[in-house]
Design a protein that fits this description.
six-stranded mixed β-sheet; 17 helices; alpha/beta; three-stranded antiparallel β-sheet
């Protein structure tokens, strides 16, 4: 039997005759055969090619769809019944039991997805269906646009309704999925590439089956020709109306300072002066806000508990250390090591992170930090009048500064965090830490010039003091890189 059509016809004949399809599975999973398994049955197995199908199917929510729900730890959650009006409504305790069940179900679905996506040895092909491809692609891309770092926020994890929501949100920022952003008609927001190799395609359901004959509606032919009728002026005015600011429609309302660097790679924006009246109060630091991430997701699974740290993770870790270091008394590797151990005791760093920081290797983070502290820049920080670390800011800037097609007068809400702001004799110096493995300082300077210029605009407008210099500190090069302001 060759071809999908013949196979489907064969299955239809069996169904019409009331017969079942009996297949003898190859022993040990070998042989030139296709095996159809549930995710549970595939545990411990490996195949050259795996199809993970129907990932767009919604998660099973039947456990929480009843007026009476049960939880092994919290007991029963009940609706309240009003005997006079015979009306039902969920109680607070019903909602508490429902949230517990939903969290546990999501955690179990996450474990199953990990099993399914690790069965393939050579290639994994994931399929899923959605009602509207464009709407779904725009939702996935919009959810991850402007995120800092590879980790997905808790609301995307707990709020997902299918495997496809998790998969597409996680993969959307890979440069190999540029086709997704093109189909979503949005500017891409990629993460630094780490060797991912995804391919992506959208197939219409009309292309999967035989064409359906179109039914002719005879009543249409009896309708009068619209061209022969006079269209009222008011109707013509309404139907022909065109929005006067089409550029603003395609401009996002929010932009991060980091995203502005990637945006510059895509377009060349004209420079506009910052209006001092457009300053908003800085946001609270994210670390001061309570985390909504359930505990089931905060404990890393066993397969992730290794001490290997990715390039993005290394940068985040170094920023955490620099935020909590006391520049005034640390001058050598010994004092750096002692401070790192104190951070571990305080719960700022995990034992694995501290082990990585103290282990000699390609990065040798402990030595890199000591080099910074003993540099002229590090000594300036120790003698500064005031040092601000991880300073968040929020600004309203002219949108055409970043999007040249946007009409004048439109604004974009820009947020960012300045790594280090040093003040000495009323002059401000902005320092941005970089872990890029780039050997050419001029490339670093040109790549991050726009980002630091935005930082300078924000600092001057918020603090009402001049910015004297912009500096990148490259841990890879062990030196400060001056940045010219745009």
């Amino acid at each position: 039997m060759s071809g999908l059509y013949r196979f489907l016809t064969f299955l239809q004949d069996l169904h019409d005759e009331g017969k079942g399809l009996s297949v003898t599975a190859p022993e040990g999973g070998g042989g030139d055969a296709v095996r159809i398994l549930s995710i549970h049955k595939s545990k411990g197995l490996e195949f050259p090619i795996v199809f993970l199908a129907d990932t767009g199917k919604p998660f099973n929510q039947q456990d929480t769809a009843s007026p009476l729900i049960l939880h092994k730890g919290k007991g029963a959650g009940l609706y309240c019944l009003d005997p006079d009006t015979h009306s039902l409504w969920p109680t607070l305790y019903w909602h508490a039991v429902c949230l517990s069940l939903e969290k546990e179900n999501r955690a179990e679905e996450e474990r199953l997805l990990y099993v399914a996506m690790t069965r393939a040895r050579d290639k994994l092909i994931i399929t899923g269906h959605v009602r509207s491809a464009l709407r779904s692609l725009q939702t996935w891309a919009g959810n991850v646009y402007g995120l800092e770092g590879p980790a997905l926020p808790s609301h995307l994890i707990t709020g997902a309704s299918s495997y496809l929501d998790w998969i597409m949100a996680a993969a959307a920022r890979s440069r190999s999925l540029s086709a997704l952003w093109e189909k979503a008609e949005m500017l891409p927001a990629f993460l630094p590439s780490e060797g991912e190799n995804f391919s992506f395609s959208v197939i219409s359901c009309r292309d999967l089956g035989a064409p359906r004959p179109h039914k002719t509606i005879s009543a249409i032919s009896s309708l009068p020709d619209p061209a022969l009728r006079d269209i009222p002026e008011w109707m013509n005015r309404r139907l022909s109306w065109i929005y006067s600011r089409p550029g603003a429609v395609g401009t996002p309302a929010k932009l991060t300072a980091t995203s502005s660097v990637h945006l510059e790679e895509e377009i060349s924006a004209p420079e506009k002066a910052l209006s001092s009246s457009a300053i908003l109060t800085p946001d609270l630091p994210e670390q001061d806000l309570p985390s909504a991430l359930p505990s089931e997701f905060t404990v890393p699974p066993v397969f992730l508990s290794s001490r290997k740290i990715s390039g993005t993770g290394y940068g985040t870790l170094m920023h955490t250390v620099m935020e909590n270091l006391d520049f005034s008394h640390i001058h050598d590797e010994t004092s750096v090591k002692k401070d790192l151990e104190n951070m571990t005791a305080q719960g700022i760093l995990t034992e694995d992170e501290t082990h990585f920081l103290l282990t000699p290797g390609p990065h040798h983070p402990c030595r890199a930090i000591a080099i910074f502290l003993n540099s002229p820049l590090g000594r300036r920080l120790a003698e500064a009048d005031h040092v601000r670390k991880e300073l968040p800011f929020s600004l309203l800037l002219p949108a055409d500064r970043f999007y040249p097609d946007c009409e004048p007068g439109e604004t974009v809400f820009l947020q960012g965090v300045i790594d280090c702001l040093m003040e000495k004799d009323g002059q401000l110096t902005i320092i941005d830490y970089k872990t890029d493995r780039e050997n050419n300082p001029s490339l670093l300077e040109s790549h991050y010039r726009r980002q630091l210029s935005v930082y300078a605009d924000a600092a001057e407008s918020i603090l009402q003091k001049p910015v004297d210099s912009l500096l990148l500190w490259s841990f890879h090069l062990g030196q400060a890189v001056p940045v010219s302001r745009i």
